[in-house]
Every structure is written in C-alpha cells, then in structure tokens.
Amino acid sequence: MKKLSARRRHPLAAVVVLLLALAATGGLYAAFAPAGTAKADETAQSLAIEEGKKLYSVGCASCHGTGGQGTSDGPSLVGVGSASVDFQVGTGRMPAQQPGAQVPKKKVIYTQAEIDQLAAYVASLGAGPVTPKEGQYSPEGADIAKGGELFRTNCAQCHNFTGEGGALTHGKYAPSLEGVSPKHLYEAMQTGPQNMPSFPDTTMPEKEKKDIIAYVQAVNGDETASPGGLSLGGLGPVSEGLFAWIFGLGALIAVAIWVAAHTAKAKKS
User: Fold this and answer.
1) 158 domain residue, yes or no
2) How confident is the model over 239-255, as pLDDT tens digits?
3) Is 190 in the same domain as 114?
4) Which of 72, 112, 131, 151 could covalently link to 82 via disulfide, CB atoms 3.0 to 4.6 Å apart?
5) Is the peptide bond before 129 cis (omega within 30 degrees of 0)?
6) Would you place residue 16 in the very low, low, confident or very high pLDDT band (cuts 50, 70, 90)?
7) Which helix H or strand E contains 242, and what residues bound it?
8) How confident is the model at residue 191 (pLDDT cuts 50, 70, 90)?
9) Torsion, CA 117, CA 123, CA 129, CA 132, rounded to 10
C-alpha cells in the first residue's frame, strides 16, 4: 500500500494518467467514428473536381489557360474561389461571348450541378472565397433599415439608391440589381466581380451583407409600391430634377403667360 501511495504521489503520475486517457479516447473514436462517411465525402469531392476539370478544359481553358494561370484573353483563376465561379457562371456572364469593357449577364448554359463541379475544380487551384450556404445569405430576420444605410454608404454611388444601376466610365456600368438572387448578391459582395470592389467578412460582416440583401429585395419587390407616388424609374435626382424642370417650370411659365394675357385684356377693357 505504501508503494502504491508513493507512486500516486509521483510528479509524473498525472501525466501518465492523462496519456492513458487520451489513448483510450482515441482508440474508441477510431473504432466507432463514421470513417466511411468521411471517405465517401472525399471521394465525391475528388469526382467533382475531376468532372469540373473536363468542363473547364472545354469551356474555359482557351481564355484562362489550361491550369487556370490566365492568358492575354482572360485573368488567372488561381485563388478566386468557388464563390466567384458560382457567381460568374451562375449569372451567365461566363463563358464570355466576346471581349469588351464589361461582360453582361446572359442566359446560363450550365446546370447547377455542372457549375458546382467547375467551382470545385477552380477552388482546387488555390484557396479563395467559398460558395455561401443558404443560412449566410437568406434575408430572413435581417434589418432592412440598417441595410438601407449600408447600401447608401457603400453601393448607391454606382448602383443608384434603389439598385437600378448606372453608367460608369469607358463603357462600363453598374448593373441593375432587380431580380438578382440573394445568393448572387452575397457572392458579388464577397468576390467583387469586374468593376465592383470586394467586401470580405473582415470588411463587411455576414450580418451586414444579409441586411443589404434584405434592403435590395425590399426596394425591388413587386409588392412594394413607391410611397411618394410615381417612382420615375427610381433613377434618382437626375430624372427627378428633369421632371421638375420640364413639368414644374413649364407649368409656372404657362401660368405666367395666362396671367399676362388676362391682365392685358383687362387693361384694354
């Protein structure tokens, strides 16, 4: 008993017990962990990358290079991440029909499964923004008023305060945000496509992105009527000022002419 008590009081006794406990825990985990599921996920990911590489070779390599390194006709895709692929291909901007100041949105030619495979392959070339999950971009429970403040501060300079879009320099433009899905809005903020700056989570947290998405959906929704009456296309002060000059000033001129005419008649009589 004295020998056993002495061993218990030994300085290394606690370390030995901890190592034995860790070994036992690791053994039990190895015995009962769902290794088959993890292996199946790895296999599915490898297959997606392989299929994505085939699609890439046919539809993308001519501009972006056989290994995504880029060419004179297209930028490097190393490090752009799966989110960029999902946005560009999922909105029909890629593959591009022809070079230009800006690639427009057009009909999507790939299925979502094929887009996921392309995204998996491009993501394997280098780490980058990951395609968001529904919980990240769903506007449910978001603060629309806060989203409006954020949108007017960060986005309205190009997209207009209701997301109608607008012209930029050298043939470029900020596209309209009407009808754009929450997922693609989130990815655009994540990746900064074409002329748009990127807003990673370190700059604009996920919650703020959701607030902006909720605001854009609110101002572009079919059920939302303009509280001021005629919206004039929601294009902002230019169209509103033009309307005021043409109709407002025109009405004042008409009134002035009518008053002058009747004043002249009164004097004659």
Assistant:
1) yes
2) 667 777 787 888 888 88
3) no
4) 131
5) no
6) low
7) helix 237-243
8) very high
9) 30
